[in-house]
Design a protein that fits this description.
CATH superfamily: RRM (RNA recognition motif) domain
Protein name: RRM domain-containing protein
InterPro entries: Nucleotide-bd_a/b_plait_sf, RBD_domain_sf, RRM2_NsCP33-like, RRM_dom, SLIRP/GR-RBP-like
Strand content: 25-35%
Structural class: alpha+beta
CATH class: Alpha Beta
GO molecular function: RNA binding
Helix content: 10-25%
Low-confidence stretches: 90-96, 98-106
Strand order of the largest sheet: 2-3-1-6
Oligomer: single chain
Pfam family, one: RRM_1
Number of strands: 6
Keywords: RNA-binding
Order of helices and strands: EHEEHEEE
Distance between the termini: 54 Å
CATH topology: Alpha-Beta Plaits
Radius of gyration: 18 Å
């Protein structure tokens, strides 16, 4: 089972995430999501356990707990919608934001 971990302190790295969740059970995967351009943590990550019961125990024990100076959120990760990527929010098909002129008169 894959868990979403939100509210991470920005200095948290993958090893620390693995260590914290490893106190609950056997962690098979841990990652902290970083910004592609800056390499800085986005404040969330994902953890996977060998066993779903261990993952549920991690949710019960760690959701709402403190890590560093922040309260973390731990829950079952949701799958990304099919098609991936965020295409909404006013972006055109070429990757830029759409302008105000749409081919009509001024």
């Amino acid at each position: 089972m894959r868990l979403y971990v939100g509210g991470l302190p920005y200095q948290t790295d993958e090893q620390e995430l693995r260590d914290v969740f490893g106190q609950i059970g056997n962690v098979t995967f841990a990652t902290v999501i970083t910004d592609r351009e800056t390499g800085r943590s986005k404040g969330f990550g994902f953890v996977e356990f060998e066993d779903d019961d261990q993952a549920r125990a991690a949710i019960d024990q760690l959701n709402g707990s403190m890590l560093g100076n922040r309260t973390i959120t731990v829950n079952e990760a949701r799958e990304r919608p099919a098609g991936g990527g965020n295409r909404g929010g006013g972006y055109n098909d070429r990757g830029g934001q759409g302008g105000g002129y749409r081919g009509g008169r001024y």
